[in-house]
Each structure stands twice: as C-alpha cells, then as structure tokens.
Design a protein that fits this description.
five-stranded mixed sheet; globular; 5 strands
Amino acid sequence: MSDFRLQGLAKVLVHYSLGIKKGDRLAIRTEPVAAPLVREVVREALRAGAFPETIIALPGLAQIRYREASDEQLSYIPPALRLAFEEYETMLNIQAEENTKELSSVDPVRLAVAQEASQRLLQTSLERTMPQDPYAKGSLRWCRTMFPTNAYAQDANMSLSDFEDFVYRAYFLDDDDPVARWQELSKRMMTAITIFQAGSSLPALLRIQPMATSAIVSLLLLTVAR
C-alpha cells in the first residue's frame, strides 16, 4: 500500500508546483529508489491529462561514465534529454541519491567537462522559465524535490524513518489538504514581497508573514519554479 504522504506529495507537485494541465508533456528525472513517488506522480499526472515520461539514472553508471568516457562522450547530451529541456512543458527532478559520496574520487576536471555541457541545458531551461506567464507558448514549468533515502538520512545523522517524517512535515503532507496549504503560503509570501517592495519595515513584514520554521524548511527542500 502506498504511503498516503507520497500521494499528497504527488498532488502538490502536479497541481501546485508544476500546475500541470491537459496535454502537457512531463519529464521525470530521478533514480530507482524514488520509484514509490514516481508511481504516484505518474498516476496523478495521467489523471490531469498529461503525458508523463521517466528518465531513470541507474546507480553506479555516473561513476563508470566519468572514469571511462572520453571528453567527447562526457559532453554528449542524449536527444531525449535535450528534447525535454527544449520542448516539454513541464519537468520534475527528484533528488534520490543512494550514495552522496559516489563521485568523491572523480577527477574534478572530468566533472567540469560534463558540467559545461549540462550548463547549456540549464541555460535553456532558465530562458524558457517565464514566471509572469508560466503557460505562455514555449515556456517550461519545472520543479526539484527530494525523496528521502538512507544516504540523506545518514548525512543528517538521522534514521530513515525520522528523516522521512522531517521532510514530509516540511512539505505539509500531514495536512488534510497540502495543496491548499501551499497555495495559502504562496499568497502570504506574495503579500510579504509586495509590502517589502513598498518599503515597509521588517516588524510590519513579520506581522503579516510569520514564517514558521517548517515553512522555511519547506521552501529550501521544495524548490518551485513557476
């Protein structure tokens, strides 16, 4: 049986973070350990009328690639990935590392070669991100989130179950309607930004937008680009 919190997170990602609508193409990038969340996101995206696709990176392949590939191979961008960045309407990156130290022994020069090629894709995604009109023709709505893993829990000196509780609480997944909670937080933030831009004092800002610790953590963990 699926964790109800993953079902809630899928709803947040599909209906709030990405604002998916009928006909949208959705690229989901992650690792196998995040399969429980991927299944829920695909289910919710299909119900919304979207066309979800998965790009799964197997553990260990990155290390092999950096050790064995030539510079030309390291700079190669798979056509399917390029298509997603250049043409898809939505993209979801789910961080789900099983070993956060996997590339610690890789030559930094090798990493830089691959990162330079990836930088061009990143620039494309930024150019297609239109906060003022996220549904404009040619625009890209993207989001990055985290799926709790043993590796992240160990880095935080926590058990996996405790880390899951910490992350899911930060996502407001214990709420009856986490999507509504995020929408409420978004409205409060916009009010706070408007007041701040108008030159109001910090005390006045804090009275209108009393940011709780959980909300701050949520914003750090769930990066939303709309």
